[in-house]
Design a protein that fits this description.
- By secondary structure, the chain is α+β, with helices and mostly antiparallel strands.
- It contains 3 helices and 5 strands, in the order H-H-E-E-E-H-E-E.
- It has one domain: Trna Endonuclease, Chain: A, domain 1 (3-Layer(aba) Sandwich).
- Strand 4 and strand 5 form a beta hairpin.
Length: 122
């Protein structure tokens, strides 16, 4: 568990540095690309736009989503560029965790004047 916490701390520092550099006002894709660039430079394995399949109890596919980032095949990162994190964003992240079976996620909002980051554990 301490490895994931260390990884989350590193990501928090990198994401905050991006917020300080760019400020708010860009589209989500700019922050996503910047975060991927800096994570890779830090030696952190990251995948972009990862498909997530949602299945019913009998295995039937009932929906598909795309997670912004998946780090080390164990952490979902969902990025936002809005005024603030809201309940719908939290529900989205928790749904991603349930659909993938992963246990950890970060929700990062670069859009408001104040940087926001929340950690979720399912």
């Amino acid at each position: 568990m301490s490895d994931i916490l260390t990884t989350c701390d590193e990501i928090r520092e990198i994401a905050y540095a991006i917020h300080r550099y760019f400020g708010h006002g860009y589209l989500e894709k700019v922050y996503e690309s910047a975060l991927v660039n800096r994570l890779l430079k830090a030696g952190i394995s990251v995948e972009q736009q990862v498909p997530i399949t949602v299945r019913d109890e009998d295995g039937t596919i009932v929906g598909e989503y795309v997670a912004d980032l998946v780090v080390n095949n164990e952490l979902i990162i969902e990025l936002k560029a809005g005024e603030a994190i809201c309940e719908a964003h939290t529900a989205q992240v928790l749904g991603y965790l349930r659909a993938t079976g992963l246990k950890h996620a970060l929700l990062i909002n670069f859009g408001g004047p104040n940087f926001q980051i929340k950690k979720y554990v399912l």
